[in-house]
Automatic annotation (TrEMBL), chain A:
Pfam families: CoA_binding (PF02629), Ligase_CoA (PF00549). One of its GO terms (biological process) is tricarboxylic acid cycle. Residues 343-502 form the ATP-citrate synthase/succinyl-CoA ligase C-terminal domain. GO terms for cellular component: cytosol; succinate-CoA ligase complex (ADP-forming). This is Protein FdrA.
UniProtKB/TrEMBL annotation, chain B:
InterPro entries: AllG-like (IPR009499), OXTCase_su_AllG_h-dom (IPR024033). This is Succinyl-CoA synthetase, alpha subunit. Gene3D superfamilies: conserved protein of unknown function from Enterococcus faecalis V583 (1.10.10.660), Enterococcus faecalis V583 domain (3.90.1710.10), NAD(P)-binding Rossmann-like Domain (3.40.50.720), v583 domain like (3.90.1700.10). It comes from the Bacteria. It comes from Acididesulfobacillus acetoxydans.
Length: 516, 469
């Protein structure tokens, strides 16, 4: 066994690049453990956890390369590969380092800007966001791990300057037709969206596009905007901006359960906007009533349908599940195949699926269950009906988001398929900018392998159900992605709701069949 | 721009963080710029707190920096004559020696500085042997003081003794003066710590023949515009610190006719001109005090975070900042990285030495390297590296020099006015072009190369600036 630790002073790279490189290096032949990361206290701890013996000192701008492998050759090979990967991952076409500005202010001296897209580590993010606001830039704050106090301060500053502060932890926005971070390429149109949920905004905009209508603007607020301390500052500013926007004829709000006072303010703002609007509160237990101006939708698909109708378009109705097809799948299952395993990359898509499944199947286990009784003691081990958001913080420590890197999801698909009790594996495949360039290409070989191992290697008939959240305009080629999955035997649906209901149908039929 | 206005404008994005977001926007044909972002101040929470504290008085800091930069830009140094140190330099008493860099005691002095001290004592006749001179210096018989604290600068050891002749540089805009000895040439010279009989003889000749002759010649001029000469030398392949060929040539063209016009012995004129002609660095002892005169004009501007002096005594690196006046911020000096002359190894090198980094402080030297591509052969590098260094320095300076411009950068003004905040925040240190002294007294120059100041100097300065608030 050979161990090597190199500390390269002053070689900073962003965490996404490093996590991808780390993962790839770990998978190289003859490598037992690898860490490529900045010298943060966290990474120094990880080194200890990985049992690296050598004591090193490194700062936040120093790159640590730690490798342990079979022999010198394996370690040297990994080192070479790592450098090659760093070049591919880290250097974009953004020019020579010495010509690139090193700060926001320097960037603005080179080129006019009106929006700062900030995805630096959370500890540093508020400072950069504040500087951007002070330079009169709108801000999309992708970074997470920003304190609530900082969020409040930043949003107050943004509000006083009539600027957007989308975030923190804002993954999706579409401004002036431009998808930012994780967003799909949708038609421009008359429906304006303000969303406290990234994948919520993605799903609604994708469905609007599918129904032939388009999006004027999609503003993200970050998931905590409706928290009492924040008071919905950005939600209300977003609604106000859409109210004033001549392009926007219909306003859609995708919200999360809000403090009552804040919810009332949002509802009032929508009612008084003078424009028809749709309100969808994710994870709500019901109880929100609409009025003449505000239509309340139960889920993301219905949100898009109502918005499309208000915009004068024709909504595509939800397809009810084909009972014959359901019976076909269910009858091929063995009696012990009773459960669903949902492996999601979109948090709101996951929540929506859980809500639908629990209505039909009862308790759904998860890391973040809708019903606290469904809390999994170990999120790495599924139990009965389990649905997981692999984009949850628990799963993304030291790892890129599952929309970018499908490694964890692939591993988990194989594991779940081996479980003889599993009947259905339910997936979301999110396309658009920011996401993996070919998720279907990544998944297909694993699905084939999983099928071979299904039901304990007996060649059983585990059913794969997927929803592909994407549009014809997305860089991944929506049709190609769907076709590749279908050819691998995946039942692909046009909405998340339909995929979840079909899944519930199979399990209901299978359980019913078992009783017969 | 309000949200509504943004909706009616083309998006122009500045991306800080994940590079693929930049690539995605570029692919969509959007105007987008990637910031080469790093954690501020290397992630040091104390430094970030100091930066944040200064942010709270941003307008005052900006006003201070604007004023300091304005003074630095408007200062206009002229060479007006030559005199004797003791008659001119404020606070230079008898049995007192000025030296390069921040304050230092005999016991901490490096080899070349000690050698130069011994040489100066012998030159002044305060002792008759090197042993006695050393005894005198080590027993408190000599007062040491940084040249910088007396409106003076000197290359390498930078020793100034009372009877040495000095150039008189006058900043005619603000009225302040700066002083510097005359350059002795290369090889075994006092500034590298040599104190043999030949060294002392040369110094005597410089005081008795060269200086009086130049003084007479200069009396025939209206004063020589050094700022103008320095601007020209950048257009002729010099950077004003480690390459002074064209500066020396330009000075030669000006002084030669004046020497001939002055009522001097022809042999004196010949010896003076041969001496200047034989030393490419003759002009260094004019560009340095010219920079000093300009930077002193900016010293003491309240709230300003701009550097007014960077200097080394062979043991420590020292920094002065406009907003903290005459206070020194010091840390152990680094070793110079570069090329060593044949026969020498890294073990022979002394740590960084000399007041000559005053040129970088003023936007010359390493900051103007793009003007002097030929220098890279001397300091070990490539011509494109010279361009990169000059480009990089704009990241840490307040402005661009109005007079010192670089042809290869489309006559862009050199990066000028080093901002302590930017150095610490970005982790980008000034680059200094410099010579390498032998660690033992009197061997001389053993190479040349590039050196960076210790970051600790800038961190200490930043903390001190934050404490003033």
């Amino acid at each position: 066994m050979k161990e090597k630790i190199i500390v390269q002073a002053n070689r900073y790279a962003d965490s996404v690049t490093l996590m991808l490189v780390s993962q790839r290096v770990q998978q190289l032949p003859g490598i037992e453990a690898a860490l490529v990361g900045m010298g943060s206290p966290l990474n120094l701890d990880v080194l200890q956890t990985l049992d690296f013996q050598e004591e090193i000192s490194a700062g936040a701008n120093d790159l640590i390369i730690a490798l342990r492998g079979r022999d010198d050759d394996a370690v040297q090979n990994a080192l070479d590969q790592m450098e090659a990967l760093m070049r591919v991952q880290g250097t974009s076409s953004s020019g020579q380092a010495e010509e690139r500005p090193k700060s926001l202010v320097q960037a603005l001296a080179k080129q006019k800007g009106n929006l700062a897209l900030i995805s630096v580590p959370g500890v540093y993010a508020p400072r950069e966001a504040r500087k951007a606001l002070e330079q009169n830039l709108h801000v999309m704050l992708f970074s997470d791990n920003v304190s609530l106090a900082d969020e409040v301060e930043l949003k107050k500053l943004a509000h006083s300057r009539e600027l957007l502060l989308m975030g923190p932890d804002c993954g999706t926005a579409i401004l002036n037709g431009v998808p930012l971070a994780f967003a799909n390429v949708v038609r421009r149109g008359v429906i304006g969206i303000v969303a406290a949920s990234g994948t919520g905004a993605q799903e609604v905009s994708v469905q609007i596009d599918r129904m032939g209508q388009g999006v004027s603007q999609a503003i993200g607020t970050g998931g905590r905007d409706l928290h009492e301390a924040v008071g919905g500052i950005m939600m209300l500013d977003g609604i106000e901006a859409l109210r004033q926007d001549p392009e926007t004829k219909v306003i859609v709000v995708v919200s999360k359960p809000a403090a009552p006072a804040v919810a009332a303010k949002v509802l009032r703002a929508l009612s008084e906007s003078g424009k028809p609007s749709v309100l969808c509160v994710i994870e709500s237990k019901g109880g929100i009533r609409g009025n003449a101006e505000v239509t309340v939708a139960r889920n993301l698909l219905e949100t898009a349908q109502k918005a499309v109708q208000l915009a004068g378009g024709a909504a595509i109705p939800q397809k009810s599940a084909d009972q014959a097809e359901i019976y076909g799948f269910a009858s091929a299952l063995r009696p012990e195949q009773k459960y669903v395993r949902g492996l999601f990359s979109g948090g709101t898509l996951c929540d929506e699926a859980m809500a639908i499944l629990s209505e039909k199947l009862g308790l759904i286990y998860s890391y973040g269950p809708l019903d606290p009784a469904g809390q999994l003691p170990d999120p790495n081990k599924s139990f009965q009906n389990t649905v997981l958001d692999l984009g949850d913080d628990f799963f993304t420590v030291g790892r890129p988001h599952p929309m970018i890197d499908l490694t964890l999801r692939k591993q988990r698909i194989i594991e779940e398929a081996k479980d003889p009790e599993v009947a259905v594996i339910l997936l979301d495949v999110v396309l658009g900018y920011g996401a993996h360039p070919d998720p279907a290409g990544e998944l297909v070989p694993v699905l084939v392998e999983a099928r071979g191992k299904a039901a304990g290697g007996s060649g059983g008939s585990v059913v794969f159900v997927a929803y592909v959240c994407g549009t014809a305009g997305d860089p991944q080629d929506y049709n190609k992605q769907v076709k590749a999955l279908q050819e691998a035997g995946v039942r692909v649906f046009a909405s998340n709701v339909e995929a979840a209901e079909f899944t519930a149908g199979i399990l209901e039929a299978a359980q019913g069949g078992g009783q017969r | 721009m309000s949200i509504r206005d943004l909706f009616a404008t083309e998006l122009a994005v500045i991306n800080l963080g994940i590079p693929s977001f930049y690539d995605d926007l570029l692919r969509q044909g959007l105007p987008v710029l990637q910031v080469d972002w790093k954690p501020p101040a290397g992630g040091d929470p104390e430094m970030v707190a100091a930066l944040e504290k200064l942010e709270t008085v941003r307008d005052k800091v900006e006003a201070g920096n604007r004023e300091a930069f304005r003074r630095l830009s408007e200062a206009h140094p002229y060479l007006e004559g030559i005199g004797t140190a003791r008659d001119l330099i404020p606070g230079l008493g008898e049995h007192m020696l000025l030296h390069a860099g921040p304050p230092i005691s005999w016991e901490h002095m490096s080899g070349p500085v000690r050698g130069a001290v011994i040489g100066a004592i012998l030159y002044e006749g305060w002792a008759q042997s090197a042993e006695d001179a050393e005894k005198m210096a080590s027993s408190g018989g000599i007062a040491f003081s940084p040249a910088h604290e007396h409106n003076a600068v000197g290359p390498m050891a930078g020793i100034v003794s009372p009877s040495m002749p000095v150039f008189i540089i006058h900043n005619r805009t603000h009225g302040n003066y700066a002083y510097c000895t005359l350059n002795e040439g290369l090889g075994k010279v006092l500034r590298f710590g040599a104190f043999g009989a030949d060294v002392l003889e040369r110094l005597k000749w410089m005081a008795e023949e060269l200086a009086p002759a130049l003084k007479k010649a200069l009396e025939l001029s209206e004063g020589i515009d050094l700022k103008g000469l320095m601007a020209q030398m950048l257009h002729m392949g010099d950077e004003g610190h480690n390459r002074n060929k064209s500066g020396t040539s330009l000075f030669f063209r000006i002084i030669a006719p004046l020497l001939l016009k002055a009522d001097l012995e022809p042999q004196t004129v010949r010896r003076c001109l041969e001496f200047i002609d034989s030393n490419d660095h003759f002009f260094l002892n004019l560009s340095m005090p010219a920079c000093k005169a300009m930077l002193d004009a900016a010293a003491g501007v309240e709230y300003s975070t701009l550097v007014t002096a960077m200097t080394r005594n062979g043991t420590d690196f020292g920094l002065r900042v406009a907003g903290t006046g005459s206070r020194w911020f010091t840390a152990p000096a680094n070793y110079v990285e570069g090329l060593l002359f044949p026969g020498f190894t890294a073990q022979d090198a002394n740590p960084d030495l000399g007041d000559s980094a005053i040129t970088e402080t003023c936007g010359l030297g390493g900051f103007a390297m793009a003007a002097a591509p030929a220098i890279v052969q001397f300091v070990g590098g490539t011509a494109s590296m010279a361009l990169e260094f000059s480009h990089l320095m704009y990241q840490i300076t307040y402005g661009e020099n109005a007079v010192f411009t670089i042809p290869a950068l489309n006559f862009r003004g050199t990066a000028t006015g080093i901002d302590v905040r930017q150095v610490v925040e970005l982790g980008v240190l000034p680059v200094i072009n410099t010579g390498i002294a032998h660690r033992e007294a009197g061997v001389g120059q053993v190479g040349a190369g590039l050196v960076r100041p210790p970051m600790a100097c800038f961190e200490k300065a930043l903390s001190a600036l934050a404490e003033t608030i």
